[in-house]
Design brief:
Largest sheet of chain A: 4 strands, antiparallel
Order of helices and strands of chain A: EHEEEEHE
Strand content of chain A: 25-35%
Radius of gyration of chain B: 25 Å
Helix content of chain B: 55-70%
Number of strands of chain A: 6
Largest sheet of chain B: none
Shape of chain A: flat
Number of strands of chain B: 0
Helix content of chain A: 10-25%
Oligomer: heterodimer
């Protein structure tokens, strides 16, 4: 069973708050994520993991009147949280996907306190091969 | 590679692996060596033709890879420990392998490999991957494609499976009599999961991935041939034959799902049904009935009905009654309710479904809603049926199933009142 685990981060000012963390906290956070990814990889559960650039770089695109699409900057002022990154995992059960999400949620923040991020878990309904 | 050559390679894969593991012991390294030999054979045989004794050829090549591996391993250990091995080089490296073909012990190698790969120390997904590679002779890339995951992910899963085998200290030997029933149960369960993954893939755009189903059938046939007296092994093969016989009738031109009662039965594979029916009939006559045999018997009753209206529902109801006693699977209870509705009317079925509302195993499953929708439709309660079809569509993770359920609701809504 494939699931996407979507990690949401507070929007802040368009940058991730993590950019303002002290270096040791940043390092602890990134080491936590590396270990998590390594564990998923060696278990043969990791399909892919992707981190996204900050919401300040997001563009909204829709079909324009002419040939060119209409492209606008954020600011998506109404959104409190933004997708910061996601994992796609292939696991035996929904419970296993929830357990991974639960672990990801405890990634350390400033001062080493767990961030307790909300991770949205959705089962994949369609997969295409590249 | 010609398909006959490929077939031959896959047929020989477990025998070759068995011979190499017997000789060298190290299952994990032997499995890698055999994979390399299979790849080499696929390339060389295409150009130079299949050798006279393909089995001996593969064992020889795999054995050479093993010798290389052991030599490298010895060199590494020597470097690490600075110990000079006392034994002459000839004895450190195992000589060419004997290529006996008629040894009954080697006939059993496929079974021993299945017992290892499907051991309960492995997670089911690891067991499936390792079985397809070590016993089925599929490459990691082929397995990854079948399960729609990257090859690297599948490679890790296989390597994790091998680690589990090592950690659990599993030996390359036949299980003892006392272990046997449980271990065989695990083997049959893994083959059943592979078949189902191919037949009704849990997620994805297409309803059937026949390559996995046919591989599961090939392995189930091998197990049945090796253990012709085992009722459940025969039952599983019969179940697969009878289910797969309906494959072409099960989907429409756009991949849409066609339920059993609406299928064009002239599309059913009559030869497969005849083989399945004969197999299950013979097996049931021997007593000691198991869950696969009962499921096969139910599939046989469906297979024997010329038209949906000819279905012997009282017999199916009786068989589901037996199955319900044997297994605590809520899916069995669902099917039992459908059979009850077909025999005694929809109210009887709906009454039986009530006991499943509290079953947490069905909490996120779409089938309870789908069955309820179907029974309310039978009872003529169109609005309630539509609501349950839509609820079921929201819960399924299969696109063809979702489309089928949405269409059912839409058709009910469009009917003149």
């Amino acid at each position: 069973m494939k699931f996407i685990l979507m990690m949401h981060a507070p929007r802040g000012t368009g940058d991730y708050a993590i950019f303002n963390w002290p270096p040791e906290d940043l390092k602890a956070h990134s080491n936590f994520m590396k270990r998590l990814n390594e564990d998923l990889r060696s278990a043969g559960e990791l399909v892919s993991v992707e981190g996204l650039t900050p919401p300040g770089q997001a563009r909204l695109v829709r079909a324009g009147k002419g040939d060119a699409p209409e492209i606008t900057d954020g600011p998506f002022a109404e959104a409190k949280e933004f997708l910061a990154g996601f994992w796609i995992v292939d696991v035996e059960s929904a419970e296993r996907a929830y357990a991974i999400a639960g672990r990801a949620s405890t990634a350390p923040g400033p001062g080493g306190t767990p961030l307790n991020m909300s991770i949205e878990v959705r089962e994949v309904m369609f997969s295409g091969s590249p | 590679m010609q398909s006959t050559g490929e077939h031959l390679l896959r047929e020989l894969a477990p025998q070759v692996l068995g011979a190499v593991v017997r000789r060298f012991g190290d299952f994990s390294a032997a499995e890698d060596a055999v994979q390399e030999a299979l790849t080499a054979a696929a390339m060389q045989w295409r150009d130079a033709g299949v050798p006279d004794n393909p089995r001996a050829w593969l064992i020889h090549v795999a054995g050479r890879r093993m010798s290389d591996h052991l030599r490298a391993e010895l060199a590494r250990r020597r470097r690490e420990t600075a110990l000079v091995m006392e034994a002459p080089p000839d004895e450190q490296v195992v000589p060419a392998l004997d290529a006996r073909t008629e040894d009954p012990a080697e006939q059993d190698d496929t079974l021993i490999l299945l017992f290892m790969c499907c051991h309960s120390a492995l997670t089911r997904s690891s067991a499936i991957a390792l079985t397809l590679r070590a016993v089925g002779g599929l490459t990691t890339g082929e397995i990854a494609n079948a399960f729609l995951v990257p090859e690297a992910t599948m490679a890790q899963r296989i390597s994790r499976a091998k680690q589990s085998i090592k950690k659990a200290g599993l030996r390359f030997r036949m299980p003892t009599d006392s272990e046997r029933a449980e271990r065989l149960g695990a083997v049959l369960h893994v083959l059943y999961l592979v078949f189902n993954e191919g037949y009704a893939s849990s997620a994805g755009p297409s309803l059937q991935r026949t390559d996995l189903s046919s591989e599961a059938m090939r392995l189930a046939r091998a197990v049945h041939n090796l253990l012709p007296k085992d009722g459940e092994a025969a039952g599983l093969l019969a179940l697969m034959l009878l289910t797969d016989a309906r494959r072409t009738a099960r989907t429409g031109p756009d991949g849409e799902l066609i339920p059993l009662d609406e299928q064009d039965r002239s599309l059913w594979d009559r030869a497969a049904i005849a083989e399945g029916v004969a197999l299950i009939t013979e097996t049931l006559s021997r007593g000691s009935i198991g869950a696969y045999q009962l499921q096969a018997a139910i599939a046989a009753v469906h297979g024997e009905a010329e038209r949906a209206a000819d279905t012997d529902w009282p017999q199916i109801l009786a068989l589901y009654g037996l199955l319900k006693h044997m297994s605590d699977n809520p899916m069995v209870a669902l099917n039992h309710a459908i059979a009850a509705a077909m025999v005694h009317g929809p109210a009887a079925g709906l009454e039986l479904l009530k006991s499943l509302d509290a079953d947490t195993r069905l909490a996120d499953n779409h089938r309870l809603d789908a069955v309820r929708a179907h029974l309310f439709e039978m009872a003529g309660d169109r609005d309630t049926a539509m609501a349950h079809y839509r609820a079921a569509a929201n819960r399924t993770s299969s696109i063809p199933e979702r489309d089928y359920l949405i269409m059912k609701a839409a058709r009910l809504g469009a009917k003149p009142r």
